[in-house]
C-alpha cells in the first residue's frame, strides 16, 4: 500500500479549465515559468471560442474533440503527453479505466499531477491505496474531491478524460508563437468542430450564434453569463500574450492593437449592462470585426513562412481516421 499527496499543486479557476489545470501542474513541477496568460497564448487555448445556439454553459468546453485540441496545445509547448478517454458506455471502459489508474499513480509518484474531467477539467494531485481513492482539485474550492478508483471517469456526462504530462523538449519561442497564431487562424475559420452536430459554433461563427441568440430572446442567461465571462477573460489573455511577443513580427504588433481595442469594447459587456441587449449586440458585432482584423494579421504572418505540418502529404494520402 502506498500514497502520494502533492500539496504544492494549487489550481485556481480563471481561464479555460484545461489551461488552469495545465498551469497548476506545470508550475508545481517547475516545468513552466511565466504568467498563465503566456501559457494560454502559446498553447493556443486562449483563442478557442465556442457558443451553443441557446447559450448553454457546456459551450465553454465544447471547443472540439479534446484529444485533438489538447494534444496540439501541449505539443506546441514541447511536452510529452499521454491521454485517454472516451465514452463510459463503451464495453472496454473498465479495461482502460484500470490501465489509467496504473499510469496516473506512476505520474503522481514522480511528482507530476494530471488533468482530469470532473467535469469541467481539474487536477488529480494525490492517491491513497489503502482507501482506494484519488484526490482532485476543481479550482473553485480549497477542499478536495475524493474519487474512488472504481469510480474514476464516472460523472454526470457520458465522457471521461485523463491526461498526463511528461518531459519537455526545447521548442524555439518563434516556432511556438507562429504555431499559436496558426492555431488561432484555424479555430477562427472552422465553424463547426463537433460535426455532425451544428448546435455549437466555433471561431467567427460563434459570435453570430451569440448575437442570434440575443436577438431571438431564446437562450440560457446563466449559460450566457458564463460564456461571456470566459470569453472576456480569454481576450484579455490574448491581449497580454501579444503584448509580450509583439516585438517578434510587425503583424503581431498590429494584431495586438486590435485586441487592445477589442478589450475596451468588452470591458463592461454583461447581461446587466445599462444599454440592454441592443447595445450588447452592437459591442459583440464590433468585437467580431476587430478580432477578424487581428486574425487577418496572423494569416499574413503565417503566409510568410513555410508550414510543413500542414502542407506535407501524409503517408497514407489522407487525414481521415483509419
Tell me what you see in this structure.
It is a single chain. With 322 residues, this protein is an alpha+beta fold. The chain has two domains: 3-33 and 79-168, Cysteine proteinases (Cathepsin B, Chain A, Alpha-Beta Complex), CATH 3.90.70; 173-308. 48% of the residues lie in helices and 15% in strands. The protein has ten helices and nine strands. Strands 1, 3, 4, 5, 6, 7 and 8 form a seven-stranded antiparallel beta sheet that branches. Strands 2-9 form a two-stranded antiparallel ribbon. Strand 4 (114-117) and strand 5 (121-128) form a beta hairpin. The protein is globular.
Keywords for this structure?
322 residues; Cathepsin B, Chain A; alpha+beta; single chain; 7-stranded antiparallel sheet; two-stranded antiparallel sheet; globular; disordered C terminus; 10 helices
Structure summarized in a few sentences:
The chain is an alpha+beta fold.
In total, the number of domains comes to 2
Through-space gap between termini: 41 Å
**SS element count, helices:** 10
Summing up helix and strand content along with how strands pair, one would put the structural category as alpha+beta
Mean pLDDT: 93
Low-confidence stretches: 316-322
Largest sheet: 7 strands, antiparallel
> What is the number of beta strands?
9
Oligomer, anyone? single chain
Helix content: 40-55%
User: What is the approximate shape?
Assistant: globular
Q: How much β-strand is present in the residues?
A: 15-25%
Order of helices and strands: EHHEHEHEEEEEHEHHHHH
CA-atom Rg in angstroms = 20 Å
Amino acid at each position: 500500500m502506498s500514497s502520494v499527496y502533492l500539496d504544492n499543486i494549487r489550481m485556481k479557476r480563471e481561464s479555460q479549465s484545461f489551461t488552469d489545470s495545465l498551469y497548476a501542474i506545470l508550475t508545481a513541477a517547475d516545468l513552466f515559468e511565466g504568467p498563465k496568460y503566456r501559457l494560454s497564448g502559446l498553447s493556443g487555448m486562449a483563442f478557442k471560442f465556442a457558443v451553443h445556439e441557446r447559450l448553454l454553459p457546456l459551450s465553454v468546453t465544447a471547443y472540439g474533440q479534446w484529444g485533438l485540441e489538447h494534444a496540439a496545445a501541449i505539443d506546441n509547448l514541447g511536452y510529452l503527453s499521454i491521454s485517454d478517454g472516451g465514452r463510459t458506455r463503451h464495453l472496454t471502459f473498465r479495461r482502460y479505466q484500470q490501465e489509467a489508474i496504473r499510469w496516473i499513480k506512476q505520474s503522481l509518484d514522480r511528482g507530476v499531477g494530471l488533468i482530469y474531467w470532473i467535469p469541467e477539467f481539474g487536477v488529480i494531485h494525490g492517491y491513497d491505496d489503502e482507501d482506494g481513492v484519488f484526490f482532485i482539485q476543481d479550482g473553485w474550492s480549497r477542499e478536495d474531491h475524493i474519487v474512488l478508483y472504481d469510480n474514476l471517469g464516472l460523472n454526470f456526462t457520458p465522457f471521461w478524460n485523463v491526461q498526463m504530462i511528461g518531459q519537455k523538449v526545447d521548442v524555439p519561442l518563434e516556432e511556438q508563437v507562429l504555431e499559436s497564431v496558426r492555431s488561432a487562424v484555424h479555430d477562427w475559420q472552422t465553424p463547426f468542430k463537433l460535426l455532425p452536430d451544428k448546435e455549437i459554433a466555433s471561431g467567427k461563427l460563434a459570435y453570430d450564434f451569440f448575437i442570434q441568440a440575443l436577438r431571438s430572446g431564446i437562450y440560457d442567461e446563466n449559460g450566457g453569463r458564463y460564456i461571456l465571462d470566459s470569453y472576456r477573460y480569454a481576450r484579455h489573455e490574448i491581449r497580454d500574450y501579444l503584448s509580450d511577443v509583439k516585438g517578434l513580427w510587425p503583424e503581431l504588433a498590429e494584431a495586438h492593437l486590435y485586441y487592445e481595442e477589442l478589450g475596451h469594447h468588452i470591458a463592461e459587456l454583461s447581461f446587466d449592462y445599462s444599454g440592454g441587449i441592443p447595445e450588447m449586440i452592437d459591442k459583440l458585432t464590433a468585437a467580431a470585426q476587430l478580432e477578424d482584423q487581428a486574425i487577418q494579421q496572423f494569416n499574413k504572418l503565417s503566409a510568410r513562412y513555410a508550414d510543413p505540418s500542414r502542407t506535407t502529404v501524409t503517408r497514407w494520402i489522407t487525414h481521415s481516421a483509419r
